[in-house]
C-alpha cells in the first residue's frame, strides 16, 4: 500500500515536472494575459551572442504556483515567424489576437535584420501566426516603444526609436503618434502639430478609463537623456491632444527599461528599470496615484521587504491582485534571468506563491481561446490567502540547449511509466 502510494506520487511528480517547459532567461520580451494565461513572446536570450527567441509559452493562472517552481507550458505551434526584441505586443479586445508590432526584427533563417513587415498577428484559438495586410499610412519601423489599445480597438503607439545604424545601434527618437485600427486594419500617423512632446522611447504607457494615456519616463529628446519621472506626458485619445503635468510626491529616479501596470482603481505601479549605464535606480517600486490632481508619486511602505533585486528589461502584468514580473536582466551580474516575481497590490507585499482568485472548477477544457470564462483583471476583490512572503532570488539555471532534450526524454520516461502502470 505504502509502496504503491509512494509510487503514484512519484509518477505524478515526474509527469508534472517533465511536461513543464523550462524557458531560458530573456530580455526586452513581451508578455500579455489572455483569459487565464500569461503568455510570453519575443525577446533577446543571450547578451553575449545574437541569440533571440521565437517561442511562445504561458503560465496557467487558473492554478496555484510557487515562483521557485514555475509550471510553464510551451505552445509548440506558437513559434513566432521572426525574431523580435524591444517590440510591443497588444491583445485585441475580444482576446482572439495578439498584435506583435515593431522591435528589432530579424529573419529567423538568415538572422539578417528585416523591417519589411512591422505587424504580425497571432490567432489565439488556432495558434497560427499571420502577416496581415494593413491599409493606410506607411508603418514606420520603430523599437523601444509601447502600445495600448482603447475600447474602440484602436492601438496607440507613441514615438520610439528608429535605429538606422544596426552596428552602432544609433538612430533617432520620435514624437509622432501612430495608430492601428484593429477592426479596419488601418495604420495612421496622426497629424498633430500643437503642443508636441519631446521625442521619447522606453517610456511606460497606461491608458486610463477616461481615455487619457499616461506616458512616464524613458529616454527623451535627441540627446537621449532620461525623462524626469515627475514630468508626465498625457495624450487624450478622444481629443487627440497632448498635455503635460508635473506630478507631486516622493522622488523617483529617472529610468528606462522599467515596467508598469495600471490598477483598476487608478494607480500606476512602476517597477525596476535602470540608468543609462545599466545601474540600479531607486526606489525599485513606486506608485503614481492618478486619482489626485496633479498625480502623486508614493513609495508603499511594505514594498521594500523581500523586494526582488534590481532588474531591467523585464515585463509586468496585473492579474487580479498580483503584479507578475517576468524575466529581464539583473543589474548585479548583467545576466538575463528566467525568474518570476509576484507583488500583491492589495497588501503591498512581495510574495512567492500565486493563488488563483477564484476556485478553479473541475478541469475544464484547456484548448486555447475557446470557452474560457475566466474573469480578468477587474476590480473585484479576491482571496489573498498568501502564506509565504519570502522572495527567492536564486535564479533558476537556464537550460537553453537541454530544454528540448529534457522534454523529449521526460516524455519518453513518462510514457514508459504509464505503460508500466497499466
Ligand atoms: C551565450 O552566448 C555565449 C557566446 O556565444 C555562450 O558562450 C554562452 O554559453 C551563452 N549562454 C547561454 C546561457 O546560452
Ligand atoms: C527609419 O529608418 C529607415 C532606415 O532604417 C529609413 O529608411 C526610414 O525613412 C526611417 N523612417 C522613419 C519614419 O523614421
Ligand atoms: C554605422 O556606424 C559605423 C560606425 O560609425 C559606420 O562605420 C558604418 O558605416 C555605419 N553603418 C551605416 C549603415 O550607416
Ligand atoms: C512643470 O514644472 C516646470 C518647472 O518648474 C515648469 O516650467 C512647467 O511649466 C511645469 N509644467 C506644467 C504642465 O505645469
Ligand atoms: C480577455 O482576457 C482578460 C484577461 O484575463 C480578461 O480580463 C478579459 O475579460 C477577457 N476579455 C474577453 C472579451 O474575454
Ligand atoms: C514573513 O514570513 C516570516 C516567516 O517566513 C515571518 O516571520 C514574518 O513575520 C513575515 N513577514 C511579513 C511582513 O509578513
UniProtKB/TrEMBL annotation:
Attractin/MKLN-like beta-propeller domain location, by residue? 100-358
User: What residue range is the signal peptide?
Assistant: 1-20
Keywords from the UniProt entry: Kelch repeat, Membrane, Repeat, Signal, Transmembrane, Transmembrane helix
Which spans are transmembrane here? 404-421
> Which top-rank group of organisms is this from?
Eukaryota
Q: Tell me the InterPro entries matching this sequence.
A: Beta-prop_ATRN-MKLN-like, Kelch-typ_b-propeller
Location of region: Disordered: 360-385
Q: Which SUPFAM superfamilies match?
A: Kelch motif (SSF117281)
The protein's matches in PANTHER family, at most eight in alphabetical order, are given as: ACYL-COA-BINDING DOMAIN-CONTAINING PROTEIN 5, FIBRONECTIN TYPE-III DOMAIN-CONTAINING PROTEIN
Designated name of the protein: Attractin/MKLN-like beta-propeller domain-containing protein
